[in-house]
Structure formats: structure tokens, C-alpha cells
């Protein structure tokens, strides 16, 4: 074994060992669409006194955090998104009415005199007009009526007092009238002895004591604290002081909030999605592994081992990085398994070519040449997929972001799997005399049936390239006709409104459900079937109370009615998401064009983008003809198809560039024809690997993944066609008007083969050596 092979083997073993340990000791973080629960997106609004900016949104978030904790929700998640949005995730909360009621309530901050220790009886019955609440240590305090509210607080801030040695303190500043009330309140408290509970002042937010400081001994009776110099001291840490300041200030200056998005997923739907995706992954991966082993024999089996290692590594990376695994992300993880074979197929096909061109060379040198020759195409194709994943993350929302992260991790893990793990395994195997001598065992020394058939027939695909353009134009015309005639069925994510799916204990047909809802006052409700006997109801603006009444109307016909899924999108957010989707597509096209123009010729770049646009139009048109919903999940599939389409085009044009540089006097049409014939085996074998996975997702993935898998199935088939029979003809047409010279040939170090055979012309049909 060479030193490089040893390094790869040790690195592969180390990464795989760490990945196995992470897989066995850590659990994935599941999104709400997999574990069930409610997700809310809140939009902060400007008030008469406060602008909805980053600072005011942070204050609002801290107030909301305290309120949600009072719901008893297990591990709620609150994060700020952008300048003025807050994302709230509540696992296991199936009825968003209670959560929305608590979240939407105006902040109630008040200041009370402490009348002394309280009792449980006083807490239950109340005492006059006051309250009995536990303080920060859990001791009950009897509080008097509110003396001033949070509206009187002008500002609150945390600071570190190094001179007085008081540590972290919270300074309060009141408006003029409220400042006099504060002075009077603290002056009355100062009339009681030190350490007496009655010398304390309780600050209460939403019926919870957030602080109950004692008036300092230096303050005289009925003198009180002036507004501008009030400080709350205690054993605060930096975070505690800042949180207390945010709570006090947030209660004083509440920012109005509006629920612009609400999604609820039942736990059974999430569990079913996980089970279905797991079955699809196992069956699809097994079919892919068997296929790759059948085509490439021993080396294909080694690639299947590397594929299994890839699955472990990418899963461990998702868990270790704390990535929230959503339903689209889970589908992306399954899809990436099928796409991970692409780099291996590229290498194996290049190794077959090297072996065929120089039969006397050793199997090990052919594999090394295969890895070296495939590197450019592997790098470029994976970069284009990473671009698509980046666009999904930065321009998508919610679960689509998770899909982008999963796809990016999958691409990086697949490169490591192919270029380190698979290479180490194949290099070790290629040095075995048994593997080298028996061509039927290694799978590389024989050219393969597809390549043999193409070499023998040598079809001239581009003798009349315009006919392929006419076919592509006809396909686009059919797709556009579907968009115009049938229209695009935009989901509520892009139009705004509410979509709720229900499961009933008794079967209810669509017409009966429509009649029942119309009788209950929901005349505009659109009712359709949602698979497995479930009903899908789509309406415009629908409050949580109205949704409860709608469910009750269905229950009269269907018996016990359970909400399976609930999506509420505000009209402003729907417009924004629709606009962002168009921006994402435009940026995807421009970024891919720029990258390909730098890496290749401008003619190749425009041709690849033309094929990309061709694929997008046909996929949207297909969904229009089929009446399928176009939503955020479809957008994730569409951007993935863009990456896949450009991936295929890159492989073809990389070979065109290589062959043309070696035969600069040969017509570009002849070069392109030979490049396509050489890359067809790779295209077919890679496509088959992805199709196995997608077919398993479409059949076994359930209704929630059916449209996603269908979009990718259509996209991959169309993308495979367009990368050869649309992109190449467009490039040939553009090259006729291009004055740029053929690409320059790369200088390679001079090599000699053990058998002394000459390297044949790259455009030779193989009839002579």
C-alpha cells in the first residue's frame, strides 16, 4: 500500500469511528413536522411610542418566553428572525388557540407594595384587592394593589457597578408622573425595618414576580427613591441582569405582534413520515447498492460500502451540528444517498476509458487516472449543487431551510465518501493479483454493455441538432399551455389563507363535507381529499375559534374528528414568500450562469442555463397539468432539479472541453457527439441510482412526500434529457457565431505505459490502437 492510500484509509477509519460514536450516543433534533406541535411566526408592528426594530423585538421575545413557560410546554424554542419577526416552536401543542391567546395578550407589568408573608389559602382565595404570589426564591408574598404599571417605565438597563462593588445592577427610569408614584411607593416601604418583607417592592409581570428588591437602609421613611437614580441590586449575573432589564422594559413598551404564519402537525403524521422515509431509504439504498454492484462488480460493491459509510457520516454530521431535521430535510437526506453514487460512477467510467485506451496498463494505474480525470467534473458538479443548497438556505423559509442544510451536508459527505473512503478501498483492491487478473471480478477492465453498444453503433446525434431544439420547444409549448389553461395551483404558503387536514372516524365524502361546512357558515371553504380518507379544507382568513367551529361541523358527519395538519399563512407573508420564490429562481439562474461562464466558455454557460430554464418550465407545466400544489416543498424540489440539471450539463461540457482541447482542428459537433457518447453511461447509471430512491419515496413515503418525490422524478428525467439534447444543441448553435478559439490543451506530465502502447486519439472509435 502506498503512503497516500494509507493516509486515506486511516482518515476514513477515524471519521467513520467518530461518526458511529456520535450516531450511538446522540439523538437527532426533530422539527415540529416530525415530532408534532405548533409553529408560529410573529410579526412585530410599530406602536405609537416604539418602532419595531431589533431591540424592541428582543424585548418582546423575552416577555413571550416567560408567558410560554407558563403553558408548561416541553422545550419550547423562540428565536428572532430578521429585524422584526419571532419564530415560536411549541412541541406537542396541537391546539394553537391557547398558545395564541397567551402570546397575543398585552404585557401586564405592575409594581406592588409587599404587605408581608403570604399563605397558600390567601393565594387560592385572594386577599382584598391584592395578590399572593411566590417571589424569586419561591416564598409566598402578600402584595397590595398595583401602585403603577409598566406604562410608567421610561427605560431600564443593566450595568456593572465596579466602584461601589455592587456587581451587576438594573437601573430604572420612570416617566414624570410615574416617577412621583415610585418615590411614594419606596418611601412607604422604607418606613419598615431592614430585612422586613414589607420593606420590599414587588415587580410583577403577567402575575409572576420577576424581582422583589428591598429598599436600601440609607433611604429614609417617606423619602423614597427618585426616578432617575433607582437601581435594583442583588446577586445578578450578567445574563440575569440583562434579562431582568429586558423584561421590565418590554413590559413598559410592548410591541404589538401579529401571527403571520401558523403550522400545526399531529404527532401521528410526523411518526408516519419518519417510518415511511426510513423504509424508503432502506429499500431505495439497497436497490441502488445492488444496481451499482451489478454494473461495476467488485468495485461497485466497494462503492456500496462507501455509500453506507456516507449515510453514517452525513447523519452524524447532522446530529453533531444540531441541525433540525424536518420532513423535507429527511427527504433530502434520503435523496442524497442516491446522488452520492454520482462521483463513484464518474470515476469508474473514466477508469474504464483509461483501461480501454491502454490495455497494457495495470488496474491500479487505471483507477488512479480515473480519479484524476474525473476530479474536474466531480468538483464542478458538486459546486453547482452546493449553490442550489445555499440558495435554499438563504432564500427559503421554515422547513425549506432545513432541506438546504441537509443537502449541503450530503454533498460534502458524498465527496468525502467517494474521494477518500471509496478510493482507499478500490486502491487496496486493485493491488490484489486476483482482482487484476480476472476482468469479470473487478468490473473496470471491461467497458460495459452501454459503452460497447454506443461504440459499435456510433450514432451521430448532432448531425441535425436543430431537430432536438424543435422537440424541446414543443415540450416547452405544452408546459406553457398547461400553465395558461389549467393554471398553477399555488399553495396557501404563496397565496395566504388556511389549510387544515382532518381525519374522521367515519368516512365522509367531499360533497357531504362541503354541505356540512356551508350549513355552518363556511361557504367559501374548498374541500378535497387528502389521501387515506382524510379531508383537506382550504379557506381564506380563518381564526382559531372559527377553525374550532369548522371542526365541530365536520364531526357531526364524520364522528370523532382529529386535526392532522394545520397551516395558516397571512396575506402579507404569502406575498413575500411568492416574491422570494421568484427571486430565488432568478438568482439561481444568474449564479449558475456566472459560475459556468468562469469555469467554461460563455456558449457552454448559456446553453446550460437554457437547459435549466427548459427544465423549470416543463416541471411547473407538468404540475399545472396534473393539478398538483405548488408550495415551499415544490420550490425545494425545483431548486434541487436546477442543481441536478446543471450537474449533468457540467459533466457533458467538461468532457467536450477536454476532447476539444486535444483535437482543436476537429469540428465542434464531432467533438460534442463523442463527448456525449462517452458520458452517457455515467448519466444513465447515476440517474438510475437517484430514480431508485425517488421511486421508493414516491411509493412508500406517504402523501406528505408524494409531491416532492414526483417533482424530482419528473425533474431528473427531464434534466437528463435536456443536459444532452437541449444544452449541447444550443451550445453548437451559439458556437457558430462565436469567434473564440477552441480551449487550450492542458499540459500533462509525460507518462509511459508498461506495455509501451501508444495513447489513441480521444475521438477515435476504438477500431485501432
Question: What features would you describe in this structure?
Answer:
The chain is α+β, with helices and mostly antiparallel strands and 769 residues long. It is 59% helix and 15% strand. It has 25 helices and 20 strands. The strands form five sheets. The chain has an eight-stranded antiparallel β-sheet with strand order 3-4-2-13-19-16-18-17. A hairpin with a 3-residue loop joins strand 3 and strand 4. It is elongated, with a radius of gyration of 33 Å. The C terminus is likely disordered. InterPro entries: SecD (IPR005791), SecD/SecF_arch_bac (IPR022813), SecD/SecF_bac (IPR022645), SecD/SecF_CS (IPR022646), SecD_1st (IPR048631), SecD_SecF_C (IPR048634), SecD_SecF_C_bact (IPR055344), SecDF_P1_head (IPR054384). Keywords: Cell membrane, Membrane, Protein transport, Translocation, Transmembrane, Transmembrane helix, Transport.
Short description:
This protein has 769 residues and is of the alpha+beta class. 59% of the residues lie in helices and 15% in strands. 49% of the residues are buried.
Defining key terms:
five-stranded antiparallel β-sheet; 769 residues; eight-stranded antiparallel β-sheet; alpha+beta; disordered C terminus
Largest sheet: 8 strands, antiparallel
- The chain-level mean pLDDT equals 80
Oligomer: single chain
Low-confidence stretches: 749-769
Please bin the fraction of helical residues: 55-70%
Question: Tally the helices: what do you get?
Answer: 25
**Ends apart, CA distance between termini:** 32 Å
Q: Estimate the strand proportion.
A: 5-15%
The main sheet orders its strands as 3-4-2-13-19-16-18-17
The radius of gyration computed from the alpha-carbon positions, rounded to a whole number of angstroms, is 33 Å
Amino acid at each position: 500500500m502506498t503512503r497516500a492510500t494509507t493516509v486515506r484509509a486511516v482518515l476514513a477509519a477515524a471519521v467513520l469511528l467518530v461518526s458511529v460514536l456520535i450516531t450511538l450516543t446522540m439523538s437527532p433534533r426533530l422539527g415540529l413536522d416530525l415530532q408534532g406541535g405548533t409553529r408560529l411566526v410573529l410579526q412585530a408592528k410599530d406602536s405609537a411610542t416604539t418602532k419595531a426594530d431589533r431591540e424592541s423585538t428582543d424585548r418582546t421575545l423575552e416577555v413571550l418566553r416567560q408567558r410560554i413557560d407558563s403553558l408548561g410546554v416541553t422545550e419550547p424554542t423562540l428565536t428572532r428572525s430578521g429585524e422584526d419577526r419571532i419564530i415560536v416552536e411549541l412541541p406537542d401543542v396541537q391546539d394553537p388557540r391557547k398558545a395564541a391567546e397567551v402570546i397575543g395578550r398585552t404585557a401586564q407589568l405592575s409594581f406592588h407594595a409587599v404587605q408581608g408573608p403570604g399563605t397558600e389559602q390567601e393565594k387560592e382565595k385572594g386577599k382584598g384587592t391584592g395578590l399572593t404570589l411566590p417571589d424569586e426564591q419561591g416564598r409566598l408574598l402578600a402584595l397590595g394593589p398595583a401602585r403603577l404599571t409598566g406604562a410608567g417605565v421610561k427605560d431600564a438597563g443593566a450595568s456593572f457597578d465596579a466602584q461601589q462593588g455592587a456587581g451587576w445592577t438594573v437601573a430604572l427610569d420612570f416617566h414624570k408622573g410615574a416617577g412621583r408614584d415610585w418615590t411614594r411607593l419606596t418611601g412607604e416601604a422604607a418606613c419598615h425595618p431592614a430585612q422586613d418583607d414589607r420593606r420590599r417592592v414587588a415587580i410583577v409581570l403577567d402575575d409572576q414576580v420577576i424581582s422583589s428588591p428591598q429598599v436600601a437602609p440609607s433611604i429614609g421613611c417617606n423619602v423614597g427613591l427618585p426616578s432617575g437614580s433607582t437601581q435594583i441590586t442583588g446577586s445578578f449575573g450578567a445574563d440575569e441582569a440583562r434579562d431582568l432589564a429586558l423584561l421590565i422594559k418590554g413590559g413598559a413598551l410592548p410591541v404589538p405582534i401579529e401571527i403571520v404564519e401558523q403550522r400545526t402537525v399531529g404527532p401521528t403524521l410526523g411518526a408516519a413520515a419518519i417510518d415511511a422515509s426510513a423504509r424508503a431509504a432502506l429499500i431505495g439504498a439497497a436497490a441502488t447498492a445492488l444496481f451499482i454492484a451489478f454494473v461495476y462488480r467488485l468495485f461497485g460493491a466497494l462503492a456500496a460500502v462507501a455509500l453506507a459509510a456516507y449515510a453514517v457520516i452525513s447523519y452524524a454530521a447532522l446530529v453533531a451540528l444540531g441541525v433540525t431535521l424536518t420532513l423535507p430535510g429527511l427527504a433530502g437526506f434520503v435523496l442524497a444517498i442516491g446522488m452520492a453514487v454520482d462521483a463513484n460512477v464518474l470515476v469508474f467510467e473514466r477508469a474504464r476509458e483509461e483501461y480501454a485506451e491502454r490495455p497494457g496498463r495495470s488496474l491500479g494505474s487505471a483507477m488512479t487516472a480515473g480519479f484524476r480525470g474525473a476530479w474536474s467534473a466531480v468538483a464542478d458538479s458538486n459546486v453547482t449543487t452546493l449553490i442550489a443548497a445555499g440558495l435554499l438556505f438563504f432564500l427559503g423559509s421554515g422547513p425549506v431551510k432545513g432541506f438546504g442544510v441537509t443537502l449541503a451536508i450530503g454533498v460534502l459527505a458524498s465527496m468525502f465518501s467517494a474521494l477518500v473512503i471509496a478510493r482507499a478501498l478500490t486502491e487496496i483492491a486493485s493491488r490484489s493479483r486476483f482482482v487484476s487478473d480476472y476482468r469479470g471480478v473487478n468490473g473496470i477492465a471491461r467497458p460495459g454493455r452501454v459503452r460497447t453498444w454506443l461504440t459499435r453503433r456510433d450514432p451521430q446525434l448532432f448531425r441535425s441538432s436543430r431537430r432536438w431544439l424543435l422537440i424541446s420547444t414543443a415540450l416547452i409549448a405544452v408546459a406553457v399551455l398547461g400553465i395558461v389553461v389549467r393554471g398553477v395551483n399555488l399553495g396557501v404558503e404563496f397565496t395566504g389563507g388556511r389549510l387544515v387536514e382532518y381525519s374522521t372516524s367515519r368516512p365522509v365524502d367531499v360533497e357531504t363535507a362541503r354541505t356540512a361546512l356551508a350549513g355552518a357558515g363556511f361557504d367559501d371553504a374548498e374541500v378535497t381529499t387528502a389521501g387515506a380518507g382524510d379531508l383537506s379544507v382550504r379557506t381564506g382568513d380563518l381564526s382559531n375559534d372559527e377553525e374550532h367551529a369548522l371542526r365541530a361541523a365536520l364531526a357531526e358527519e364524520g364522528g370523532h374528528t382529529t386535526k392532522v395538519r394545520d397551516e395558516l399563512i397571512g396575506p402579507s407573508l404569502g406575498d413575500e414568500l411568492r416574491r422570494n420564490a421568484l427571486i430565488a429562481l432568478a438568482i439561481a439562474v444568474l449564479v449558475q450562469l456566472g459560475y459556468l461562464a468562469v469555469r467554461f466558455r460563455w456558449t457552454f454557460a448559456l446553453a446550460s442555463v437554457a437547459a435549466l430554464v427548459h427544465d423549470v418550465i416543463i416541471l411547473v407545466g407538468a404540475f399545472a397539468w396534473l393539478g398538483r400544489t405548488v408550495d415551499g416543498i415544490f420550490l425545494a424540489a425545483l431548486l434541487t432539479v436546477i442543481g441536478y440539471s446543471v450537474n449533468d450539463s457540467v459533466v457533458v461540457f467538461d468532457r467536450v472541453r477536454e476532447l476539444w482541447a486535444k483535437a482543436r482542428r476537429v469540428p465542434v459537433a464531432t467533438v460534442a457527439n463523442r463527448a456525449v457518447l462517452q458520458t452517457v453511461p455515467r448519466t444513465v447509471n447515476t440517474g438510475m441510482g437517484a430514480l431508485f430512491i425517488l421511486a421508493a419515496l414516491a411509493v412508500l413515503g406517504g402523501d406528505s412526500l408524494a409531491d416532492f418525490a414526483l417533482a424530482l422524478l419528473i425533474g431528473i428525467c427531464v434534466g437528463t434529457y435536456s443536459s444532452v439534447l437541449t444544452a449541447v444543441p444550443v451550445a453548437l448553435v451559439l458556437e457558430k457565431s462565436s469567434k473564440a478559439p477552441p480551449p487550450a490543451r492542458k499540459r500533462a506530465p509525460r507518462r509511459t505505459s508498461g506495455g509501451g502502447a501508444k495513447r489513441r486519439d480521444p475521438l477515435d472509435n476504438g477500431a485501432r490502437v
